[in-house]
Amino acid sequence: MNKKSFIARAAVGVVGGALLLGGAGAAIADEIDNGEVDVNVNIEALPPVGALTLSVASGSATLAEVDSGDDDVRQFNGTLPTVTVSDDREEVPVGQFWYVVGQSSALTSGANSIAAGNLGWTPRLLTAEGDGEVAEGGQVGTVLDGDIGLSTGEDVLALALDSGDAATVGTWSANADLFLKTPKTVAPGAYSGTITLSLWEDAY
User: Fold this and answer.
1) Residues 6 or more apart from 176 whose CB is under 8 A from it?
2) Where does the secretion signal sit in this chain (predicted)?
């Protein structure tokens, strides 16, 4: 018997032995019991591509005194940093509109405080593109003007009447002229506060 034939027969013998052992194992195995395992998976929807976002330019609004035209009132003017709304969503929901609102805290200096109602604004839309898809909010006067100032969180800076239409331009920017009016008797001091700007989207 040559070497090649011997190797071939040895290989067959090993395979045959393996098959024989496997058969013997199957013959003596009896099923004792079984069990079941439930498989659960929660597949969440993928997030939409793109987003509707708001950003505010860095910096703060510093108010400086101007002539109020009223001997009993002191007035301080400044400018809100630029607020930008961007929409790069691939699919914009139908029947939605977005809006940016602002609300001020009281302005404080140590134990002294000026209520948020003393701060008002005149919004300015800065984006020239488009055809009326986004509008600036109306002027909000102070309590000394007979209004409520930036105290409610319902004061609109900018408003898109239709989110889909506004998204054709993609990016919109606005700011506002700020004005603080106080009685002439206001306590002197370095006052500070915060205007919170919020972007909302809702169905119409």
Assistant:
1) 79, 80, 102, 121, 122, 123, 124, 157
2) 1-29
Asked if pLDDT for residue 30 goes beyond 50, the answer is yes
Domain of residue 67, CATH code: 2.60.40
What letter does residue 133 receive in the DSSP assignment? S
Distance CA 175, CA 102 (A): 11
Count how many domains the chain has: 2
Containing structural domain, residue 89: 52-203
Q: What is the pLDDT of residues 39-75, one digit of tens each?
A: 999 998 877 789 999 999 988 999 999 999 999 999 9
User: What pTM does this model have?
Assistant: 0.76
**4 shares a domain with 81:** no
| DSSP symbol at 189 | S
pLDDT at 27: 54
Report the C-alpha gap between 198 and 94 in whole angstroms: 21
